[in-house]
Amino acid sequence: MSMHKNLLVLGDNLTAMPAIAEEYGLWGSIDLVYVDPPFATNMNFFMDDERANAVSQTRNGRIAYSDKLSGSRYLAFLKERIALVRELLSDRGSIYLHIDCKIGHYVKVMMDEIFGVENFRNDITRIKCNPKNFRRKGYGNMKDMILFYSKTDDMIWNDPHVPYDENDIARLFPKVDADGRRYTTVPIHAPGETANGESSRPFRGMLPPKGRHWRTDVATLERWDESGLIEWSKNGNPRKKVYADEKAGKRVQDIWTFKDPQYPLYPTEKNLEMLKLIVSASSAPDSIVMDCFCGSGTTLLAAQELGRRWIGIDESAQAIDVARKRLHGMPGDLFADATYDFLTI
Fold first, then answer.
1. pLDDT per residue over 310-324, tens digit each?
2. What CATH number is associated with residue 77?
């Protein structure tokens, strides 16, 4: 049976993943997995019934989930599940594993073993909150980490960018043309000489500087000049104009500021915009996205908004209940359209 519906599964992911893989033929078919597993905090997390599913720091509400495993037991628990995830990933697939700094470095060694050091892509620092004035010996903690691995080098990668802000534009594009457009200029030559070919021919009567070559063929340089895209200095040095409004923005780096919701519906709820970035960067429109510790379903919402198929698994009935309510609240009706299955495994 092929998977033509989205799946929300209540159950232990160690049992659920192979079950749905067999049922729907998913081995080697999933392009993206995001997981936010327990962080080995040795704590219980509660839901406060009186606050309509808001997070409670007291024991008055229901236990949402228990995070009592630690040390080698925790790593064994996680390794067994991540090894399964690797078998579910396609050859173009990736995994983002969200963890904190107390256990994260041990988890990275485990991930290196499962995926290979050569498939490690990034250790992303995520700013999760505003600075806190905890009374403890040591620096305040306002970050956690996301370990990004691919299954092979041929991974889906859409090279995400974010728009320039006003300061970026002023700094990176300091010049303004007659139409008020901001721009900068870049050299039209590059290191290295070519013995023959278009990039070594004269342009407007001049050769590239010694030890360099034109970045493109002379015919293109002439078209740029005729279109006003070449700026000539007082000394006759040509440079190409690059306009701010023609650039996609700046590449996303490995320090992210995506703060947790101030009033989460579930204890592990993450920032929706962060998940949309991950889904857009590492999946395609026909991809299946999976979160096997799906919690309140933020990964599923991100995948749904971006038109991907998705699978969510969690063993907490409270988590699944919150995820279903959030999915119900999205535009359209996933249930009425028969694009969604709820399973208990």
1. 999 999 999 999 999
2. 3.40.50.150
pLDDT value of residue 334: 55
Please state, in angstroms and rounded to a whole number, the distance separating the CA atoms of residues 313 and 32.
14
- Quote the number of domains for the chain: 2
Tens of pLDDT, residues 123-154 = 999 999 888 777 778 888 899 999 999 999 99
The pLDDT score that the predictor gives to residue 132 is 75
Residue 40: both structure tokens together: 């080995």
Torsion of CA 295, 298, 300, 301, to 10 degrees: 150
Pair 51, 195 in one domain = no
Adjacent-strand bridge partners of 97 = 35, 147
pLDDT at 284 over 60: yes
Q: Is the pLDDT of residue 44 over 50?
A: no
Structure-token pair, residue 210: 């010694």
Among 226, 246, 266, where does a domain finish? 246
Q: How far is CA 139 from CA 42, 43, 258, 260, 295, in A?
A: 21, 22, 20, 20, 29
Asked whether residue 52 falls in the same domain as residue 124, the answer is yes
What distance in Å separates the CA atoms of residue 342 and residue 178, rounded to the nearest whole number?
60
Same domain assignment for residues 47 and 28: yes
Q: Do 211 and 306 have their domain in common?
A: no
Which residues form the domain of 227? 166-246
Backbone angles phi, psi at 334, to 5 degrees: -60, -30
> Which pLDDT score, from 0 to 100, does residue 88 have?
98
Q: Which residue has the tokens 């698994």?
A: 313
Q: Among 191, 211, 246, which residue terminates a domain?
A: 246
Calpha distance 136→225 (Å, rounded): 63
For residue 332, how many other CB atoms are within 10 A of its CB?
A: 9
**Is 1 inside any structural domain?**
no
How does DSSP assign 218-232, residue by residue?
Answer: HHHHHHHHHTT-EEE
Radius of gyration of the chain measured on its C-alpha atoms: 26
Say how far apart CA 4 and CA 26 lie, in whole Å: 11
